[in-house]
Amino acid sequence: MSISRAYFMPRNKSLLRPNAFTVPLYEARGNYFVTTVTIGQGTTVHTPYLLLDTGESVTWVQCVGCNPCITSNLKNFDYKKSTSFRLVSLDDDICSPKLNYKGSCGYESKYRDSDSKSVGFMGRDYFRFNNTKTGFMEVFKGLAFGCGIENKGFEFTNKTGHTNPITGVHGLAPGKRSFINQLDHHIKGKFSYCIPSWTEEEFTQSTMYFGDDVKLIGGATNQVQVISMDTEVRYHLYMNGISVDGKRLSIDTSIFKLDPVSLTSGFIIDSGSPYTVLAKSAYDPFHEAILKFFRERYGWKTKPFNEDLKVCYRNKYPEDEDGFPIVIFHFLFKEQAREVDMVFNKDNMFMKFNGKGFCLMVLPTDDPGPCVLGAFQQANFNIMYDIPNNLLRFVRKRCNDDTNE
């Protein structure tokens, strides 16, 4: 099913600078989730689908003149036809690092564990965010972004070629060039999202909240949890252990500690990563605990049918929660020197493949990592980033029913 766009007329006021706004969050019918923005002024404006990515700071969109290009069913941004587009100079404060691209400020975004990268130049233009709460467009002037000219290695799973709707990245990681930093005066370093589960049959849409609209609501049995994070470069979480089926795994937790220089370890939350990834020294005991559960409960042996997923069973998918192990990630709330548990049910850990079986949606990577909390595991959690206070808040919620009330 194709994604249904929403087009809104702008308000009669010019260049509003709201302290709160919302934007739609769509499932891209693959392993990714996307937002929409509208770029430019004049006779031609551009409304691309951008991958929601909390692991990347630069927002970039594929532009006319790209080579190689991401093949898509959408047009590329023709920046020359936008009357408000301006190149970012090498002397601009936002040009950090100072990468020269044909005389102006450039950027290069590389992606972990793949050959994917986007290279191009930085520009400034008007951005309009579809506000799903008011029905209007919120307009911001002169936001800096990347114009992708050399884009290669991007394959969005089953939505490749002319059926692919994604032509860029909405970078929400910390950093000078991030929209979170550029809009800080308005949103005060706060945003939230609620990712719908891939396991649901119906096409889904949710909402992202920025600024004063951001809030999480829990209940007596579903309380909002708070954990600490480091926001210097990425959103690093203070992971302190893993339990499977009620048993704490023997893992040297130093593998989860951030190396602030090399950034080759630690535990980051990344909505642009389809799955959770664990460094081998953490993945191996986790992998063995999952195998042990199904071996002792059912006598099953793993029989992979997917070249990427390591733990798959060619057996009937157990429909009851008791048919799967409960997985718990233990994080630290440093201010109170205590652990906070993020509890994952079967739909956060296992994916059913019709006619084949089901697989564990957690992958290994070589030590020292980094480890990544991916989008599949974030589904049906309402997650709030509180950057000024270095806190991540979350509460379990069915994201298909996402409202902020």
List keywords for this structure.
405 residues, 6-stranded mixed β-barrel, 4-stranded antiparallel sheet, 5 helices
The tally of helices reads: 5
- Overall form: globular
Distance between the termini: 29 Å
The residue-averaged pLDDT reads: 85
Which percent band covers the strand fraction? 35-45%
Strand order of the largest sheet: 2-3-10-4-9-8
The tally of strands reads 27
Radius of gyration: 21 Å
Tell me the structural class.
mainly beta
Main sheet, how many strands, which sense, barrel?
Answer: 6 strands, mixed, barrel
Give unreliable regions as ranges: 1-17, 157-161
Tell me the helix content: under 10%
Describe this structure in words.
- The protein has helices at residues 179-182, 184-187, 280-298, 346-349, 375-378, and strands at residues 20-27, 33-39, 49-53, 60-62, 86-87, 99-101, 104-110, 117-130, 137-152, 166-171, 190-194, 205-211, 225-230, 236-237, 239-244, 247-248, 267-269, 276-279, 312-313, 327-333, 338-344, 350-353, 357-360, 362-365, 371-373, 381-386, 391-396.
- The chain is mainly beta and 405 residues long.
- It is globular, with a radius of gyration of 21 Å.
- The relative contact order is 0.16.
- This is Peptidase A1 domain-containing protein.
- Residues 33-395 form the Peptidase A1 domain.
Detail the topology: elements first, then pairings.
Layout: E1 20-27, E2 33-39, E3 49-53, E4 60-62, E5 86-87, E6 99-101, E7 104-110, E8 117-130, E9 137-152, E10 166-171, H1 179-182, H2 184-187, E11 190-194, E12 205-211, E13 225-230, E14 236-237, E15 239-244, E16 247-248, E17 267-269, E18 276-279, H3 280-298, E19 312-313, E20 327-333, E21 338-344, H4 346-349, E22 350-353, E23 357-360, E24 362-365, E25 371-373, H5 375-378, E26 381-386, E27 391-396
